[in-house]
Design goal:
By secondary structure, the chain is mainly α. The chain is 62% helix and 0% strand. The longest helix has 31 residues. The protein is elongated.
Length: 180
């Protein structure tokens, strides 16, 4: 006998490849978002809100964009059980744009790369020499931002293919030509 009300039905979690993949994706998104929040928050707290304490204004604005991206991402991740798949698709595309832009700004402005953190401070441009001890943190910020960009792109395409179904349909022959 079917329940009289939909509120009386019990929702059960169904384990499938799709649900496990989404679960793993949201776990990694949350973990990396919290880690990036710590790193970006540390940089902003340490160097303050004035431009004099940063190597460039663009770098400071890149950190600000990443801070906004992290807060936006946490709002998505904490509310995703109540959001629809289509809205998650739009939000994940938006978050991917934010993280990609922030990672690109950090990549463009900071002279630090993953393999250059052991070099002496004199090898870097003059504006960045006082920040040579921050090399590993800046590289970690850049790496986490690129990883979040990639995961949000993955989530975007996953939700897009989940929402839009591609299937073949029979073609009505008479529509295209007359069989005479």
């Amino acid at each position: 006998m079917a329940p009289a009300n939909e509120k009386d039905t019990t929702r059960r979690l169904a384990f499938s490849v799709r649900s496990v993949t989404y679960g793993i994706t949201f776990f990694f998104l949350f973990s990396m978002t919290v880690a990036l929040l710590g790193l970006v928050g540390n940089q902003l707290h340490k160097y303050g809100n004035t431009y004099e304490h940063y190597a460039s204004m663009e770098y400071k604005h890149g950190l600000g964009l990443l801070l906004f991206s992290v807060i936006f991402s946490l709002l998505i991740l904490l509310s995703h059980p109540w959001l629809g798949v289509g809205f998650i698709c739009v939000l994940s595309f938006t978050a991917a744009i934010f993280f990609g832009t922030g990672a690109g700004i950090i990549n463009r402005t900071a002279p630090f790369k993953g393999t250059s953190c052991g070099r002496p401070a004199g090898d870097y441009p003059e504006a960045w020499q006082p920040y040579a001890h921050e090399c590993s943190r800046i590289v970690a910020i850049q790496g986490l931002a690129w990883a979040l960009w990639g995961l949000y792109i993955f989530l975007f395409f996953g939700t897009l293919f989940h929402k839009v179904q591609f299937k073949t349909r029979p073609t009505p022959e008479a529509f295209y030509h007359n069989k005479v």
